[in-house]
Amino acid sequence: MKGVPQRKMTYWNVKGTVTDSANEQVRVPNVIALVGLPARGKTYISHKLCRYLNWIGIKTKAFNVGEYRRKACNLEEQGEFEFFSPHNNKGNKIREDCARLAIEDMGRYLDSKEGEVAILDATNTTRARRKLLVDYCREMQHNPPFRVFFIESVCDDPDIINSNITEVKTCSPDYKGIMSEEAAKEDFMKRIEMYKMQYEPIDEEADEELSYIKVINAGKSFYVHNVNGHVQSRVVYFLMNIHLLPRSIYLTRHGESEYNRIGRLGGDAPLSENGLKYASRLQNYFEKEKINELRVWSSQKIRAAQTASKMAHIAQHVEYWKVLDEIDAGICEGLTYEDFESRYPKQFGERDKDKYHYRYPSGESYEDLVARLEPVIMELERQSNVLVISHQAVLRCILAYFTNQNRDDLPYLKVPLHTVIKLTPKAYSCEVEMFKFDIAAVNTYREKPKTDGSATHAEQ
Ligand SMILES: O=P(O)(O)OC[C@H]1O[C@@](CO)(OP(=O)(O)O)[C@@H](O)[C@@H]1O
């Protein structure tokens, strides 16, 4: 076929990668598209999924079609809920154009290999709109073509719908500062009715070819169909573990240890005198807080277990998890930062250059730690109130998940000794409160080095 540009052949395998004709492994881009009426938690799912996939190392970006619409015209121009009527030609045209723009941006993001997963956060309530997306993703110009997975959120529980409208919709940029909360609520209910007129749920028979999950009443039940590849199965597992119930997660390091006092890394030293004081005060703190059905998870290191033992008669369960043990510093266990620098200067420099990926010889990296902690995150998602007693590096990884921090900043998050960090998940974010106890402790924080390679030991 001389003169005709040949498309590279691709061979599919089961790992979520394809092998092209040059025998190179290429990750298959995935599009995850939300489906459902307004106020069904689609943006909540999209935010949460995006944060989770990025944290486990799958680069993901969400494309919210509502934001494109708001850029195209404001609510006054739209004329409130009528804009969303299936009979409003102008409204339909603007909404279609916005969806197309978002889909094309998503395509560019995946084609340029900027990321591996794109989430299309829109209602996608009609079969025609879903077909437009699927056809676009299968187009020949994408090499390899994108896999598409739909997440349909179906909800007929008025309590969930109402709390969603009150919590997020009335303060959405569509309404905030434009009308009262009551008027916004009323307008939004009418908007839902407009969407109901054209809603075609994903259908078992008519949509047999699609890959999808139906999440029914915020996770009371699920219907999963045609899951294809690694990313989709991770998504399904994640969605089956999250819940909406209000709760808080408390993070604390063990009390100050004897090794902390002399600046040594890792090891398995007991608590110092101040560390023991912290353990007692921690007990008082939680006695006063009176937290419903509190679970306590501790690492198996002596310093953490000593701290957790004080909690035994307050908490429902105290569990000791090896997976919560501190980062393994390998050949550097028991050294101070100064020893580390003078004995292994090259290694020390490498860690400063890329702390997230640096792996201690015979030990672990922060990246390894994230992989080790994934089951902990999943379990935290499933639980109600939990106190985690662990270590500086481990808690940085957990904190980064809940507060959506990137990999460069993660190893430098501040998790000081003798401090309780209270995390309260909110609709699209997580509230962070820090309670610092008035008990002296050394500062174990090592600042990110300046570009000239120097680092400072900041005061706590
Ligand atoms: O990754 P860096 O910043 O070195 O911090 C991790 C270090 O923090 C320490 C204290 O220096 O944690 P912890 O006291 O919480 O067990 C070390 O054990 C660990 O190696």
UniProtKB/TrEMBL annotation:
One molecular function GO term is: fructose-2,6-bisphosphate 2-phosphatase activity
Recorded hits in InterPro entries, A to Z, give: 6Pfruct_kin, 6Phosfructo_kin, His_Pase_superF_clade-1, His_PPase_superfam, P-loop_NTPase, PG/BPGM_mutase_AS
Residues annotated to bind substrate: 253-260, 303
Pfam families under this entry? 6PF2K, His_Phos_1
Under CDD domains, the record lists: HP_PGM_like
Q: Which Gene3D superfamilies match?
A: P-loop containing nucleotide triphosphate hydrolases (3.40.50.300), Phosphoglycerate mutase-like (3.40.50.1240)
Task: Give the source's domain of life in one word.
Answer: Eukaryota
Q: Which GO terms describe its biological process?
A: fructose 2,6-bisphosphate metabolic process; fructose metabolic process
Keyword annotations of the record: ATP-binding, Hydrolase, Nucleotide-binding
Q: Which GO terms describe its cellular component?
A: cytosol
Which SMART domains does the entry link to? PGAM (SM00855)
Residue ranges constituting the 6-phosphofructo-2-kinase domain according to the UniProt record: 22-246
Catalytic residues, per the record, are: 254 (tele-phosphohistidine intermediate), 326 (proton donor/acceptor)
Q: Which family does it belong to?
A: In the C-terminal section; belongs to the phosphoglycerate mutase family.
Instruction: Specify the protein name.
Output: 6-phosphofructo-2-kinase domain-containing protein
Query: Native species of this protein?
Result: Pristionchus entomophagus
